[in-house]
Write a structure and sequence with these properties.
This protein is an alpha+beta fold. The chain has 2 domains: 3-178, Jelly Rolls (Sandwich); 183-224. It has helices spanning 11-22, 35-40, 51-65, 68-74, 183-203, 208-224; strands at 3-5, 27-28, 41-42, 44-45, 76-79, 83-88, 92-96, 101-103, 110-112, 115-120, 127-129, 132-136, 139-143, 150-154, 158-161, 164-178. The strands form 3 sheets. Strands 1, 2, 4, 5, 6, 10, 11, 14 and 16 form a 9-stranded antiparallel beta sheet that branches. The chain has a 5-stranded antiparallel beta sheet with strand order 3-7-15-12-13. The radius of gyration is 18 Å and the shape is globular. The two termini are 22 Å apart. The structure holds nickel (II) ion. The site of nickel (II) ion has 3 residues, from loops.
């Protein structure tokens, strides 16, 4: 599932995050790459342990926790501490698949990357290029979203960032270990949750059919969840 999560951050939160990270010191983006992606990656990144990255990352995680759409779609077990990157002057990141396991030294957090996320932190008309191009079984998708919006996609997907030819593409990127490892199962639960919520609006939370469907949702989640 490829999901656009709109307005994860409000415009003023985007401005706060940008003020924090823009003032920090950036390094070569290959600090988090595996050997294959190091060849493909040309960009700048905030060091994982920099105070600005930690503070801005905490703001992103707070925003995610209050997004019902994100919670329902990702069913997060652990959200990896968000990282931040910027692309300018031809920076690009060629085709790659993200590493399966991520380890953060300071926090000791180790996760299986089920989902990848990119949160856009620059307005699309402020730069040219920089589209996130994601290939999945349904074809190729080009993604470039307003600041504060996020794209969520299976971490198993082949993807790239097109060269930035004008301006700066600033974003946050991170991974999620989901309670439900398989994309197909997670997608089914997400569709079911949306349908139940819609039905509940029309029929009322206490309708016997809604109670039964909600029970089935939880029983499927119980069957598939890994803690
Ligand atoms: Ni990637």
């Amino acid at each position: 599932m490829l999901l656009h999560v709109p307005a994860v951050l409000t415009p003023s939160e985007v401005a706060e995050v940008r003020a924090l990270i823009d003032a920090a010191e950036w390094v070569d983006g290959n600090v988090t790459s595996g050997p294959q992606s190091a060849l493909a990656k040309v960009n700048l990144q905030l060091p994982e342990a920099s105070p600005a990255a930690l503070e801005a990352g905490a703001k992103v995680r707070e925003a995610l926790a209050r997004s019902p759409l994100f919670m329902s779609a990702a069913l997060p077990h652990t959200v990896f501490p968000p990282l931040f990157n910027r692309y300018r002057g031809g920076h690009t990141f060629g085709d790659h698949v993200d590493n399966a396991i991520r380890f953060q030294r300071d926090s000791g957090v180790r996760i299986r990357t089920d989902l990848s996320a990119t949160l856009f932190l620059a307005e699309p008309d402020s730069y040219d290029g920089g589209e996130l191009v994601i290939e999945d079984t349904f074809g190729v998708h080009e993604v470039k979203l307003p600041a504060g919006h996020m794209i969520l996609y299976p971490a198993s997907s082949l993807h790239r960032v097109e060269p930035v030819t004008r301006g700066e593409r600033v974003g946050s990127f991170f991974w999620i270990q989901s309670l439900v490892r398989e994309d197909a199962r997670r997608t089914l639960l997400f569709d079911m949750d949306l349908a139940i919520q819609k039905l509940a609006q029309d029929a009322g939370q206490d309708s016997p059919a809604i109670v039964a469907l909600t029970g089935s949702y939880h029983n499927l989640l119980r069957m598939w969840a890994e803690l």
